[in-house]
Design goal:
mainly alpha, two-stranded antiparallel ribbon, about 70% helix, elongated
């Protein structure tokens, strides 16, 4: 039976409008939750990345007994304390943010082994590994923070971009140092191949490790 008053049409329209308003409210609520999650996670990642940058410059501090300890504490990232709802992120971001702690765990395991195998008292090999690894994982954390900022429509300010650039610059400097070290090592290998007799090779290698140049070593030999 047709409602001559048209009230059924109004009631139907009211339900549609009410349902639409509920949908809009849910959308706004979800957008606000995403914004809040991205804010706290991005800042936590950037703080970790900044700590990694500090650690990437740490060559240790000497104790009175001649041993060397880290000057900068190992960076720590604990995203679970934020009680995040990772389902608010995209699938790609969820994977990366959950994968990052596992990468950090592997790095810490590698550095623990590096410490055990480094040469006392300065543990130079360990501190070099530490600088490289924290520069790399810091970059990963910084890039993830920037992508989370974009997802949450947060501004990418100079500070956020600066952290990433600092880490990239540090890695480039590390590569330059390694390339120079390899160039010098190759030159020393060439000199060792020409130098003899065999009983002097160990002395020459020790001189190189002590920072004595090849020319200085030869000059000292002539003065013996």
């Amino acid at each position: 039976m047709v409602d001559p008053s048209g009230w059924s049409i109004f009631r139907f329209a009211g339900k549609v409008l009410s349902g639409g308003m509920d949908w809009i409210r849910r959308r706004f609520k979800k957008a606000d939750e995403i914004h809040q999650l991205c804010t706290v996670v991005a800042f936590a990642l950037e703080e970790y990345a900044a700590d990694c940058y500090d650690a990437s410059h740490d060559s240790g501090i000497e104790n009175p007994d001649g041993t060397v300890d880290a000057r900068v504490d190992a960076p720590v990232l604990d995203l679970q304390k934020l009680k995040p709802d990772w389902l608010l992120l995209s699938a790609d971001l969820r994977y990366r943010v959950i994968e990052l702690p596992e990468k950090i765990r592997r790095i810490n395991g590698f550095l623990s082994a590096s410490w055990d195998n480094a040469t006392a008292p300065d543990y130079a090999e360990y501190f070099w590994d530490r600088q490289k690894e924290y520069a790399r994982i810091g970059e990963s954390a910084s890039r993830l923070a920037m992508d989370i900022r974009s997802y949450g429509r947060l501004p990418i300010d100079a500070s956020a971009g600066g952290i990433l650039q600092n880490l990239l610059d540090r890695q480039e400097r590390i590569r330059q140092i390694e390339d120079e070290h390899e160039r010098r090592a190759a030159a020393w290998r060439d000199q060792l191949a020409k130098f003899g007799p065999p009983d002097e090779l160990e002395t020459l290698t020790a001189a190189h490790q002590a920072g004595v140049t090849y020319a200085s070593f030869l000059a000292a030999r002539k003065g013996d």
